[in-house]
């Protein structure tokens, strides 16, 4: 019987799966005071966030790794809610689609927010 995969192939694919698991998957970030969140709005309507790791240590903290798109209806209502929460120093839960996105220009979407 001929082997299809060697031990090296199996080890390689196992490592790929582990790396993929480490860099994928969304999570919630509970921000206890939205006025403490660092953000930057750019001309294409996107608002980028960078220090969410201060509220959940399992997410990336560098380089504006998360965003909302204010050119969409969802993005407009999300940004409005965030600004209100920032002005009143209230808490908010954010769900990021990927907890550790690459920091070289592929930011992860904040796909829903709320308090429950």
| Percent of sequence in beta strands | 15-25%
How many β-strand runs?
A: 6
Distance between the termini: 58 Å
Level of helix content?
25-40%
Using only C-alpha atoms, the radius of gyration works out to: 18 Å
The quaternary state of the protein chains shown equals single chain
- Cross-sheet strand order for the largest sheet: 1-5-6-4-3-2
- CATH first level: Mainly Beta
In short:
By secondary structure, this protein is an alpha+beta fold.
Please describe the topology of this protein.
Layout: H1 7-23, E1 27-31, E2 39-41, E3 46-49, E4 66-69, H2 73-87, E5 92-96, E6 108-114
Parallel strand pairs: 4-6
Antiparallel strand pairs: 1-5, 2-3, 3-4, 5-6
Detailed description of the structure:
The chain is of the alpha+beta class. The chain has one domain: OB fold (Dihydrolipoamide Acetyltransferase, E2P) (Beta Barrel), CATH 2.40.50. The protein is 28% helix and 24% strand. It contains two helices and six strands. It has a six-stranded mixed sheet, covered by helices on one side. The longest helix has 17 residues, at 7-23. It is globular, with a radius of gyration of 18 Å.
Descriptive labels:
alpha+beta; OB fold (Dihydrolipoamide Acetyltransferase, E2P); 6-stranded mixed sheet; 28% helix; globular
